[in-house]
Amino acid sequence: MPRALWKGAISFGLIYIPVDLFSAASAQQIDLDMLDKRDFAPIGYKRVNKKTGKEVSWEHIVKGYAFEDNQYVVLTEEDLKRANPEATQTIDIQAFIDASEILPIYFEQPYYLTPAKGGDKVYTLLRETLKQSGKIAIAQVVIRVKQHLAALIPIDNMIVLNLLRYAEDLHAMDEYKVPTAKSAKTAVSAKEVQMALSLVEGMTEQWNPKLYRDDYRQDLMKLIEKRIKSKQTTVLDESEVPEAAPASNIVDIMSLLKQSIASKTKASQAREKPANNKPAKNNAVKPDAVKSKPVKSKVGTSAKRSQSASKAA
Question: What's the DSSP call for residue 172?
Answer without folding.
Answer: P
